[in-house]
Write a structure and sequence with these properties.
The protein is of the alpha+beta class. The chain contains 6 helices and 24 strands. It has 2 domains: 36-219, Super Roll (Bactericidal permeability-increasing protein, domain 1); 223-480, Bactericidal permeability-increasing protein, domain 2, CATH 3.15.20. Strands 2, 3, 4, 5, 6, 7, 8 and 9 form an 8-stranded antiparallel beta sheet that branches. Strands 16, 17, 18, 19, 20, 21 and 22 form a 7-stranded antiparallel beta sheet that branches. A 4-stranded antiparallel beta sheet has the order 1-15-24-23. Strand 3 (62-68) and strand 4 (72-87) form a beta hairpin. The protein is rod-shaped, with a radius of gyration of 34 Å. The structure holds 2-acetamido-2-deoxy-beta-D-glucopyranose (NAG) (6 copies). One 2-acetamido-2-deoxy-beta-D-glucopyranose binds at residues 85, 87, 108-110. One of its GO terms (cellular component) is extracellular space.
Length: 486
């Protein structure tokens, strides 16, 4: 059914939320706005799918007795009334704060049916006369419309059919055979009933479609798993915001630990989302507050997954004390020609800041230098490394990923079992290490990114990314490659 599709679309797009809903103590950190262009796309998709799932549509048998001049009472029956094809010539979608109306007008349809009549002739003796045949019906100027209400119920969208209807303006019946008196009698007696049967059957189909669409909406997850550590909370946090040309959704948007240890969050949405200036040219706009990224940072940090033992580097001589002979001679002296490994862990969750045109991250880490001496791991020194990186986001299919590049770093010796040594001595070794090992490693994870809340079957297309004060905005068209389970 058409409605189903529509919803799905909406739902897809919708998963995120609208930017400025009325102040509520629950803030959504991902906002989603479906623009007029997006609504039209959804509407066309919905109608197309609905129409194709509508036909063939079988209508109930219609029969009655009709008085025909000179002939008397004739029993007539129409059976196997089937709507074959419906074409829609124009359609529109309108919004106001009470709901979404979709109207398909100028629709044509063609039907086929079997007719049958019988009557008793009294010319000499009563004889039963009957005939049967086929007819086709052409319906013109049909109009189908529905109004839907969309509501957030406990974090999930609920779709309600507020009104729905189908009106048939004209129909013409073409009989295949039959007597001429029969034709007029049939038209006079049955035209209204055929019209009503078409109208109510289509109306009923639309209702069924909306119910299916709604149950589909109910199956949307409130959390999207990202990996075995984190999920993205995609609960809707406020009512959808409908204005006259767009629908906005606001969703929680924070990362939560999969192990369900709920950590209270103290995030604050920094800015009032506003529609991106080049908004109307794309179907969908998704805005992600920097809190989304910082929540990810905290979840992964708490899961202790931001730890890393480095045993291999491009210049492997750096992982042997011999490679440090001239920079930290006392290390070589104490552990000559021993292999080393680096035990790197972040000391606080990385802090991500988004400002116009750029993303910055500050990463505080501790690097413990460990010597592998006769199967024993001996920590010899710990260096605090503070890295300032600048990042960029990228979209790949429906995932938002990114990468970081080194801006600057500072080193401080935290503790040492081999005596003091100066950080400037290891500055260039560290630079090489960060550039060639640490950042490529981080980027291999960051590039995978996380799934944006886009309904299955829909894919972002020609997405543009822009950074504004504390938010990343994605303005994108979508393509539908799925099929709806009608
Ligand atoms: C009903 O109509 C369809 C299409 O015209 C036809 O294929 C089918 O045989 C008909 N069934 C009966 C019982 O007449
Ligand atoms: C707009 O709201 C009014 C009631 O306030 C309703 O009658 C009308 O059908 C709505 N129109 C649309 C397009 O939803
Ligand atoms: C629907 O459109 C197609 C192609 O334009 C046309 O061949 C067909 O006859 C139309 N059917 C009806 C019922 O108007
Ligand atoms: C109804 O549409 C079908 C498919 O286009 C076509 O084959 C058939 O001839 C049409 N019937 C009438 C009465 O227009
Ligand atoms: C997801 O977000 C909703 C709304 O903010 C909240 O009520 C719910 O507790 C969150 N779920 C988890 C697992 O944090
Ligand atoms: C890495 O260092 C941490 C302390 O920061 C320690 O608990 C852990 O055992 C070390 N891991 C290895 C493999 O040396």
């Amino acid at each position: 059914m058409a409605p189903t599709i529509f919803f799905i679309l909406i739902a897809l797009f919708i998963i995120p939320a609208n930017a400025h809903l009325q102040q509520s103590n629950e803030d959504g950190f991902i906002s989603m706005v479906i623009s007029e262009k997006g609504l039209n796309f959804a509407k066309d998709l919905l109608i197309k799918q609905a129409i194709s799932s509508l036909t063939p549509l079988q209508l109930p048998i219609i029969e009655k007795s009709v008085k025909i001049p000179f002939i008397g009472s004739v029993h007539m029956a129409l059976s196997n009334i089937t709507i074959y094809q419906v074409n829609v010539s124009s359609s529109s979608v309108n919004l106001n704060d009470t709901g979404i109306s979709i109207v398909a007008s100028g629709a044509t349809a063609n039907l086929s049916m079997n007719w049958y009549y019988s009557y008793t002739s009294w010319v000499f003796v009563p004889i039963e006369i009957s005939d049967k045949g086929k007819a086709s019906i052409q319906v013109e100027g049909m109009e189908m419309g529905l109004t839907l209400g969309l509501e957030n119920q406990g974090g999930t969208l609920k779709l309600a059919l507020m009104e729905c209807g189908c009106i048939v303006k004209d129909l013409s019946i073409i009989l295949d055979g039959g007597a001429s008196w029969f034709y007029q009698g049939l038209v006079n007696a049955f035209e209204g009933q055929i019209r009503a049967a078409v109208e109510s059957s289509i109306g009923k189909k639309i209702q069924e479609g909306i119910l299916k669409l709604d149950s589909l909406l109910q199956t949307f997850p409130k959390e999207i798993p990202v990996d075995d550590i984190a999920s993205l909370n995609v609960s809707f946090v406020s009512q959808p915001l409908l204005d006259d040309s767009s629908i906005g959704f606001e969703i929680d948007g924070l990362f939560t630990a999969t192990d369900k240890e709920i950590v209270p969050n103290y995030y604050h949405k920094n800015s009032q989302p506003s529609v991106a200036s080049d908004g109307p040219s794309k179907m969908l706009e998704i805005s992600l507050d920097e809190a989304v990224f910082n929540s990810a940072s905290i979840v992964y940090f708490n899961a202790e997954s931001l730890r890393w033992i480095v045993k291999k580097v491009p210049d492997q001589s750096l992982l042997n004390t011999a490679g440090w002979r001239f920079i930290v001679p006392q290390l070589y002296r104490k552990y000559p020609n021993d292999d080393m490994q680096l035990n790197v862990s972040l000391s606080t969750p990385p802090v991500i800041r988004i400002s116009s045109h750029k993303i910055d991250a500050t990463i505080y880490s501790d690097m413990i230098i460990e010597v592998l001496d006769a199967n024993e791991i001996i920590p010899v020194a710990c260096i605090s490394v503070m890295v300032s990186a600048s990042g960029s986001a990228e979209i790949s299919r429906n995932n938002l990923g990114g990468s970081v590049d080194l801006d600057d770093f500072t080193l401080a010796l935290k503790w040492s079992k081999i005596g003091n040594f100066h950080m400037y001595l290891i500055q260039s070794v560290m630079w090489t290490f960060i550039k060639t090992v640490a950042l490529p490693y981080a980027n291999s994870h960051l590039r995978k990114g996380f799934p944006l809340p886009i309904v299955r079957g829909f894919t972002l297309q020609n997405a543009d990314l822009l950074y504004t004060d504390s938010r990343i905005m994605i303005c994108s068209d979508v393509a539908f490659t799925g099929s709806l389970p009608f």
